[in-house]
Amino acid sequence: MSTKGPAHGASRKLDRMENSSLESLIFGFVPSQILFTAVSLGMPDVLADGRLASAEVAGRAGTHPRSTYRLLRGLATIGVVAEPTPDRFELTDFGQPLRDGVPGSVRSLVLHFCSEQKWQAWGQLRHTVTTGENAFGRLFGMGVFDVNAGDPTAAAIFNQAMSETTRQALKAIVTGFDFARYAEIVDVGGGDGTLLAAILEANPNVHGTVMDSPEGTRDTAETLAGHGVLDRSRVVVGDFFESVPAGGDLYLLKTVLHDWDDDHATRVLASCRRAIPEDSTLLVVEHVLPEVARPGEDVRDVLSDIHLMVQTGGCERTESMFRELLETTGFELNAVGDRLDGSGYRFLEATPV
After folding, report:
1. 40 burial class (0-12, 13-18, 19+ CB within 10 angstroms)?
2. Among 138, 141, 298, 163, which residue's Cα sits nearest to residue 224?
3. Would residue 256 count as lying in a domain?
4. Inter-residue contact 194 to 223 (CB < 8 Å)
5. Closest to 305 measured CA to CA, from 292, 294, 291, 315
6. Is position 20 within any domain?
7. Residue in 64, 112, 258, 287 annotated catalytic
8. Is the whole model's pTM more than 0.90, yes or no?
9. Whether residue 258 lies in the annotated active site
10. Digit-coded pLDDT (tens) for 205-237
């Protein structure tokens, strides 16, 4: 009796599984564009009113009825909406965060990361890998942050998207580090103040400063006031490549360094080094790449690194890269924390030398 049949059968099954996995990667761009289209057209908010026919959704969203039906079916296959009966659609619990203004909303994340500009830049990945030239800058003649400076709408979406990512990690960050040890915290590049507001709210004896660009700080005072901590905080508008407020006990850099290449990141850290007292602490909150990439591990961090290469010219870094960067600018890396639950961020604690 031949023993080749079962073995060949198992091999064919494995081939099918591998092909299926490869196909999911090949078509991985499709769900993100389906989401972006639906969110940009306000369809999740339309469906918040209850079960609707596709023609009703199209009427409210101002879209083509048949194409809307096909898009809604696509959304149903990825679980964002449900189609309990033919041509009747409703938003699922999974799709609720795509609405505007709801707790846990990721609407601005979709609008920012899946936008037409980001989409076009990703189409230039081959050029970036071939030449090292940042794709976004090549296409648009300026960097992402320069675009924000000249486009209030883009800046607002970016600020809200960053706030959404911060809110997802707030509990882990606020409870994962002893901020109460410090009297004055300087949040460098702190945007709309979401993180500092949460830290001050949890630590009534702490004062703080948010420092960022004019675009970044547009809504900061409102955020701090909304958390009842405006009386213990201040907002400083400036350029962290040139200088940061002096005299803090703790300097906080959350997902700032990864936006920049080593030259620019060095300038940010050098500004912090000039301002920081000798007995103070620098706390970097970032994803930390593995020293060796392995299948299925740290996927989000490694793919984020490629995204930054394409979009901002920045990068995610390994622990050794962070150590070298800090040492170059007059800091000693003293501790690297474990991954924070639900976010993957890690604390990198450094002191001036």
Report:
1. middle
2. 163
3. yes
4. yes
5. 315
6. yes
7. 258
8. no
9. yes
10. 999 999 999 999 999 999 999 999 999 999 999
